[in-house]
Amino acid sequence: MANFEAFFRRIPLADHLASLSGPWKWLSHAYRSFSRFMYRVMPKGLFTRTFLIIVAPIVILQSVLVFVFMERHYELVTERMSEAVVRQIEAIVYVLENYPQDENYRKVEELASRALDMSITLMPLEPLPAPAPKPFFDVIDRELSYGISEQIGKPFWIDTVGRSRFVEIRIQLDDAILRIITRRSQTYASNSHIFLVWMFSTSLVLVLIALLFLRNQIRPIIRLSEAADAFGKGRPVENFRASGASEVRRASLAFIDMRRRIERQIEQRTTMLAGVSHDLRTILTRLRLQLAFVGETPEREAMRKDLDEMSHMLEDYLAFASGDGDEDIRTTDLALMFEELEEEAEISGHSVKARFDGPSEVEVRRISLKRCLANLVTNGCKYGDQVEVAGRIEGGWLIITVDDNGPGIPDDQREVAFRAFHRLDLARNQDETGSGLGLAIARDIARGHGGDLYLEDSPLGGLRARVRIPA
What is its EC number (predicted)? Predict the structure, then answer.
């Protein structure tokens, strides 16, 4: 459902009421509370919202029909049928009081049985039974009691309680008690449930049809969202085509065009970076060859360090600019990747402990993810002498943590550390040089996988880098 509170704020009258005092202010507060409650309890999915929009009017309409039409119809028909039964009883009482002979009684009894479908019996004169407690909504008892009191005007006792198919009525005559037993169906509208059965059955069929129709309408939207999510995470989008309503088709076609433009832009960027990388590496190679013919001097060593730093910075710039869009996703054993990180750190003269708990095969871009972890491990080794890497799959997410015991990064500087070309060496180690792209590249790779990179306090006392991407 829509945000009722936001809708409320768009209404000038509601804003005016909110600025008033007294009852209007209380009304405004009540409306805002109700809007917030409705927003919390209402479903958030498009399918459930649309289904509720269809079902709610049907339920309200049926409730009104049952209350207004069925209740009135039931009471009116019951009143007329009870009135007819009372008139029949009145005729029997009149005949018995004015023609009390035994022969006439037998004829009246036969007439009541055949024509009126009633069983009558004359009982000795005795006090009538005490009235039984009546249900609050007993329409039959109310109508029969009212009719006998108004038309016959004699003491009576009536039994309409229970699930019996018959109604017993006793009327006190001058010298006897007239006992009348008639069928319950003669006194009230017994076929009203047929209307309810037809109404609810038809509504159920309509709801099922609407349910199937909604599923067909919602399915193209779900496919579009899944395709957009997969493309945003860099996964291949296969066999996606525009379908559904015209509005959904336009959105799908817009997504397809956007995907083509982005893919074309990535292809052009990859071609450009390949050319730049080739040209710059060629120049650096020529410089290294020329430097090799220079004698061993302090200046030669300084120039060699500058070339190494320039080459390293070039690789960082190209990695940051190229991203990971040109690499395919494949099944990767992260436990083996962690072993490679340990070996590479050992070759560089650092000690790194890495472990992966549980199943370690995940669908990722292997080269890019290794570059991400390598940057984090390199940062840890640069600023600390103890680095630990741990990984696990939890709740459908791949979680990798890289801990070090270095000086860490203050909380207010952690988001700044992700900025490209921004270095925090003044706070960590002034002797180290770099391009300031390590964390930026790592976060870009994590987000390219549909996740993110977070900086936290490490149990080792330094900095923890936590990578979280969909498994």
Answer: 2.7.13.3
